[in-house]
Specification:
The chain is an alpha+beta fold and about 180 residues long. Helix content is about 40%, strand content about 10%.
Length: about 180
């Protein structure tokens, strides 16, 4: 038997809540957002995350009865609004998008996110900056600049660090 759930979709980088939803089919409904959502904003956000090799984190906020499912969803949305969460399922968010669709592919946000991915991966693998510098044959100030998302990062240095951590940088032409 499927559970009635209130769930949240969270950013894998910031752990911020960006969507509150309800499900009468357990985790089936929340996981459907990963391929196709009823919301254009969710589709765009998931697409941005997939571009970077990530996906939203699904968290169960509460199990409910069928009778109080709608009421509980509204309560969680209001709670998130009161905490100033940027919810994609609310029309008046004081901003249009988390990252504009055409920006995440070309602007400096991408290098900031890549820097964060590098730093997080290095820390998860218990490597020091010195370890990575030695393996990638770069200086510590260069690695610090990469991890901080310095837009003037030299491609070859970035590629070396990514390769040491098991990543590959791919550039592909997008249809226009």
């Amino acid at each position: 038997m499927n559970k009635n759930l209130i769930y949240g979709l969270y950013c894998p980088f910031t752990n911020n809540l960006h969507y509150v939803g309800k499900s009468t089919s357990g985790l089936i409904r929340p996981n459907e957002h990963m391929s196709k959502s009823h919301s254009e904003k969710i589709n765009e956000w998931v697409s941005q995350l997939k571009f970077l090799g990530y996906k939203p984190i699904v968290k169960i906020l509460e199990e409910c009865t069928t009778e109080n499912l709608d009421e509980k969803e509204k309560e969680w949305i209001n709670k998130a609004k009161n905490q100033k969460c940027y919810l994609l399922n609310i029309a008046n968010n004081h901003a249009n998008k988390i990252i504009k669709q055409n920006e995440y592919k070309t602007n400096n946000d991408a290098i900031l996110i890549i820097g964060k991915i590098i730093k997080d991966t290095r820390q998860k693998l218990n490597y020091t900056q010195e370890d990575i510098c030695s393996m990638a044959n770069i200086s510590r100030p260069t690695l610090i600049a990469i991890e901080n998302g310095n837009e003037k990062t030299i491609y070859n240095n970035l590629k070396r660090v990514l390769n040491v951590l098991g990543f590959e940088l791919t550039i592909k032409k997008i249809k226009q």
